[in-house]
């Protein structure tokens, strides 16, 4: 089918070489650009194709205007047999046959040439309708492609052709019973799974999820975006109980309903009393309780594969039941204060899921501990437990921990660490240390500190690549009392590559960040999924769609404009596709799209992202 195009390419290349032989150096740059644009074509793109219940087809196609002389749909059946073609555009020169109607709209598109150069081409968007009588095809499944032809090519008897990617459509039996194009189910963890076959109905169809309570009363009707059929369980704001849910689609005068599913909202537990035995660790007491109150509104999921246990000495133990469905899940321990604000996010080391409470450097107070799981771009939470940290009363040790600690740590841009201490003569009998904890809360360095000359160098620690927390610790060996400063987060990078930290944890991606035109580009899918977003890729339109909570983000490869809930976001540099499978975006886009905090550590060549 493409022999004409290949022959044209060969002839055109030879012709270009002949012309180029006489071109002087002064015009070489202009000629290269002209040649680049003229020899690269943009294949047709199927934006949409829909077969309705009558057997008619509607759709939208984008074509390079150099290939608009003959734009046709080619059909093959399930056995791969050619079932004919129908022209949907002929350059607007003649009326289309068999009742086919097409509306055309001119435009321009910037595309990435295989050489890496961005070029602009003229395009035409074709919106077509083909009646069932013009198709003359039996009910069944068909493969459809778009073919664009350039019949005005200057080489005689040669026609250039370009083809789109394949699309699948199903032509229904007009007399058969209509089947709902999708379904709904509830997973073990309480997540609502919605599948929608939007190609079976028109783009004007309206989708909703209907919620029925135990008394058979309809309590909610929630609109569904068929391109992003995701619903946050927390957004439903349902009281505890059992509900029946189903999908409904209205397409013209037809209303179809899916099979129903059962959704159970668990009864909230009671908060722990916070009372407990005094811990054996120096200067701390621990109270333990379980429940969901005071957990920052994180609704516990059914059958969450893990739980938290707290020892009297302040050690936090994580028990995980990891089956194959959680093989790629990422777990994080959330620490919430009395105001239900997340004050710590600690990644869980699956090989050793134990965290030192002391290493968290938290001041006395009431806290809640919750496990967060990100699996396939979805977030779920465990039940919480309460945790009380109380400072041991002592008349001989009055140094407080946290914000009131008489000193602090500042990480400088050159990798040095400045330590400040409000020195008092009464502190002379105490022992002072700088303590370094890894991302799992394990102490990896404990260095004696001279409080009168607190000089410290990050480079001198000789730490492997990773994220670390550093605190100043002072201890009264006579009483066993101790206090710590507020922690400082530092990044260490012993590689030559750009590295990424998310919530203090070093990330390992298949594609490392890159720097282009002074801008750092990072892998979108890996980072968005790590931040709890679901990412989908549309190969036909080269478009990425990401959803998190109630936000929908869309961007197209090669474009410097993205959209968040329909509002424009301007990018420093366009989104780019590397190795044909990795979408790279500037780091600032992560912040603007998902509300995450994004920073750059020039000394360690690191991107630091916080989910809060």
TrEMBL record:
<feature type="domain" description="Copper amine oxidase-like N-terminal">
    <location>
        <begin position="502"/>
        <end position="609"/>
    </location>
</feature>
<keyword id="KW-0732">Signal</keyword>
<dbReference type="InterPro" id="IPR036582">
    <property type="entry name" value="Mao_N_sf"/>
</dbReference>
<dbReference type="InterPro" id="IPR012854">
    <property type="entry name" value="Cu_amine_oxidase-like_N"/>
</dbReference>
<dbReference type="Pfam" id="PF07833">
    <property type="entry name" value="Cu_amine_oxidN1"/>
</dbReference>
<protein>
    <recommendedName>
        <fullName>Copper amine oxidase-like N-terminal domain-containing protein</fullName>
    </recommendedName>
</protein>
<feature type="signal peptide">
    <location>
        <begin position="1"/>
        <end position="28"/>
    </location>
</feature>
